[in-house]
């Protein structure tokens, strides 16, 4: 009888895992559709300066750089094509850099957030 009970408990545990998924509770590992095919990074894993920039964006500023909030043209074509004005760019401070540096956050009107640390040569979708 104990063997049968153990087997039933193990089967119930397996069923529970299948029904609830394999991710830890409350953690969504699926990337949103707008990030499909792109590398992704969780907001918490971004450099601290990038997280600071996101906080400023969420608060609506004030921004430390004159170009922050400017329309991003997506001339490189690495982000999905959208009408002009859809994307906006924000500087991510680079300690030790004499200028704005190469790091940026680009946001889309649909809530998309992208990070680049190589001045638009590549982008990573930020999961927020």
TrEMBL record:
GO molecular function per UniProt: hydrolase activity; ribonuclease T1 activity; RNA binding
Protein EC: 4.6.1.24
Gene3D superfamilies the record matches: Microbial ribonucleases
Enzyme superclass (EC): lyase
A Pfam family the protein falls into: Ribonuclease
Record's keyword terms, sorted: Hydrolase, Lyase, Nuclease, Signal
Signal peptide: 1-25
Name recorded for this polypeptide: Ribonuclease N
């Amino acid at each position: 009888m104990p063997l049968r009970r153990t087997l039933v408990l193990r089967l119930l545990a397996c069923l529970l895992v299948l029904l609830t998924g394999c991710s830890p509770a409350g953690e969504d590992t699926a990337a949103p559709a707008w990030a499909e095919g792109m590398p992704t990074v969780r907001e918490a894993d971004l450099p601290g300066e990038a997280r600071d920039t996101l906080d400023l964006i969420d608060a609506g500023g004030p921004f430390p750089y004159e170009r922050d909030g400017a329309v991003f043209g997506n001339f490189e074509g690495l982000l999905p094509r959208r009408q002009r004005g859809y994307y906006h760019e924000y500087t991510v401070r680079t300690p030790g850099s004499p200028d704005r540096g190469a790091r940026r956050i680009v946001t889309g009107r649909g809530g998309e957030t992208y990070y680049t640390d190589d001045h638009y040569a590549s982008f990573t979708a930020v999961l927020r």
